[in-house]
Amino acid sequence: MCHVEIPIFLLWIHKTTSMEITHLNTLRDYNERFGFKGGNHLVNVVDFRTAEKCENGSFTIGFYIVKLKLKRCGDILYGKTEYDYTEDSIFCFAPGQLVRINLMEDENPNSVCLLFHPDLLHGTELGKNIRTKYPYFFYDTHKALQVSEEEKHFLLKVMERIQREADAEQDAHSMNMVRIYLELILEFLLRLYDQQFELQAPQSQEMLSRFENMLHDYFAQRLSKKMGLPRVEYFAGQFGYTPKYFSDLIKKSIGIGAQDYILSYTTNLAKHMMLLPGASVKETAYELGFQYPQHFTRFFRNHVGCSPKEFKKLMGEPTSPESPLLTDAEGLHR
Fold first, then answer.
1. Which of the four, 156, 170, 245, 286, has the lowest number of CB atoms within 10 Å?
2. What pLDDT, on the 0 to 100 scale, is given for residue 321?
């Protein structure tokens, strides 16, 4: 089952205003928007402490941003929920996401940003794998990384090396060196996020327990008949997370992502329901949230290895008087 990543909304809030959305598709657009001079069209490091202009506004981006906040200058809201952060925080953004800036009165941005366009990565392994290997570009904004003084110093030094390579006279090795430094930063951030996950292990176990109960209730309360098959987006939303961040938390706890867990649970539940007395393929399909019985049959065959009817014959007809309708899914995920 595919899902669409939810764009992250970053808001530096002083008061709510209505803003026209500007589309910043290139690094040149970004530089012009904030008054930065020159810069490479594929990669650039900008220091907002020296920005000529930073008016409030809303804009979408057509490139990646790794933003190191050096000072708190406002509040961050994700949806309607406000999150706190301190200085020396990392935020990551991907193409297509929406950014809204509304600075607090008498505050100026205090951050350093690494910008790189997807064209820099075309035809490279990094370009193929960036969305899956570095999923933190799609995490909630309130999951910002807190970095130490030493970690901040390291990131700034590597960003400086990237800028030197981008500004120097180009040769056959220039962009390869940039990509090497870039991947070093991305790997470093991945390590920091993994360490953050480890610190959140007790919280993740509690979340996993809640997820299991919510998945059980989804079927037991027959939400599947109204809303269809369970989706990662639904459960992630209950926790206030993006689907990607939620799935990675689950994977850190049990070794598989949220989508695989839902598929496993649904498969076991389908097997259980097909063995109830009088259960039909059509009825079971609708109970589980499939729109058509043939879709359920295809799902069952793909995940069990045989059709529902073949499974019933293989297992034999049960003698239990239970209703063929789902009344309790307790323990089916075990």
1. 170
2. 41
